[in-house]
Design a protein that fits this description.
It is built from 4 helices and no strands. The protein is mainly alpha-helical.
Amino acid sequence: MSEQSTAAMAARISLSVEVPEELFEAMRDYVEIHPSWSQHRVFCAALSLFLMQNGISDRRINRLYLDAVFDYAA
């Protein structure tokens, strides 16, 4: 992997989102039970999977999903 692609993957954007309380509570409970997962990791896995399932064919998105699910970025 080139330095440029590694730097691009490391770039993060901060989001402020509103989610239903039930989703937040379920995510919070999951993260408490599974300490290797964080809100960031859950969100990245969920969003990248949603995008892939809805027609986004981008290897970078695929890689982000795999990194999140298999904890490669840790």
